[in-house]
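The instructor's notes for this session suggest beginning with a concrete chain rather than abstract definitions. Hand out the sequence below and ask the class to guess, before any prediction is shown, which regions might be ordered.
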Amino acid sequence: MRPLYRGVTLVELIVALTILMTLFSICLISVSKYDSDSRVLQEEADTLAMWFSGIMTMANREGRSVKIYLSQTPSGDMEIRAVAAGEDVASAKLVYRSSRVFIRNESPSVTTLSYDGVWQTLTPALTLSVRSKTNRAKKIIMTVSVYGLITAK
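After discussion, reveal the predicted structure:
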């Protein structure tokens, strides 16, 4: 007499495990790519926030004004230049550019900002978006308030 249940053969088990491992690796690759884009966005937003903070700290310490110029490069990237009072824009040493993300000015009418190191105020306030180059739907919105408070969400 034969038993009513039949075991799984080694070949069936190997095939099932191969299918599961293939599906798992596909999921892992897609999740790691998502994390990579998010990590690059966050790193770039943090770097830009530190750059702005450094400019404002320098102006506060020296007690002078700084002009900040926003411009688009021919490739579509944004270039941000900080020029101390009395210096020429072309000779600006404090320039921020990024090749890893797109930075877009969300206030297109604002191309020049002025930070007063004595009063510690920025005129006008600024809103930028930091967008992924691979997936433009992913973005971090950065705001720099008139009091120099920088937030990124």
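Then share the key points. The longest strand covers residues 65-72. The helical segments are 10-62.
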